[in-house]
Amino acid sequence: MYSIEALQKKVNHEIDVWSETLSKKEPHQLYAPVKYALSMGGKRLRPVLLLMSANIFRDDIESGLPAALAVEIFHNFTLLHDDIMDKAEVRRNKPTVHKHFSENTAILSGDAMAFLSYQLLLKCRCEKLSEITRLFTETALEVCEGQQYDMDFENRQDVTEAKYLEMIRLKTAVLLACSLKAGAQLADAENETAKLMYDFGINLGLAFQLQDDLLDTYGNQESFGKKIGGDIVANKKTYLLINALEKANSEQKQELKKWLAKTGFDANEKINAVTNLYNQLGIKKLTEEKIDSYFNAASEILQKLPVDEKRKLPLKNLSKMMLGRNS
Length: 327
Description:
By secondary structure, this protein is mainly alpha-helical. The chain has one domain: Farnesyl Diphosphate Synthase (Orthogonal Bundle). It is built from 16 helices and 2 strands. It has helices spanning 4-23, 28-39, 45-57, 65-86, 97-100, 103-121, 129-153, 161-186, 191-218, 221-224, 230-233, 239-247, 250-261, 267-281, 283-304, 309-322; strands at residues 90-91, 94-95. It is globular. The mean pLDDT is 94.
């Protein structure tokens, strides 16, 4: 069984080799931003999850490397375009691609990354490649649907908790679930078993995105890799804001809506004011409880997986690491 660190090292090596090959292609201006985006690093959660899932059912994971790279390239493509839409300036403590290069370059290089991910996926040699490709394509469309809902929500005041959770299921959770199911399929796991891996990924992904929402307000910028309070500044309809609007009394709601309506403001002042309202309403604890509910659901699904407990251990450890848990 491979450890988390061993899989991260393997994925990083494959990405470095692939990026170096890519950087020699022309036109250089198209491929240089791809290499830059991948050089930002990260935990490589999605490819590691894919390989870890395959490793639960099979010792040899080499055949899964092209698919692992494919999901990582696709994920980074979505980040590249998301940063343009969100006007984000920092990603993993580095200037975003559209800031380092240009917006037009970032759009085109992002498009190239989407197609490169398919090119990598098609290098897989397994009996279930058509099923995996179908899953990958459905997931890619769902991620786009989630991003559209996210943008739609910016101008809507009727976003409910249920609608928000469906949006993050599409935007974030389905790609984690796809990675886990594809890994199981690559290892020729039974269909029902692969479905369990998918369901595990959905619950883990929901917990992970809610944790991301929480850290955007209550995290540390150095470890988080993005500016704290970005969601508040952008009026993002997060789990925190939706529940704050739901639980606020008339005075608190008026204060929140005042900040949501303001077009000219000091960013730090807005972040502090909204965070203070969240503190009054107990939003941090409420979000933590929701994260726990999804994490516990994921743990229960993993218990049902029909394999030896020792083979599940790396995945258990990774899921805890993703949510910053020690036990």
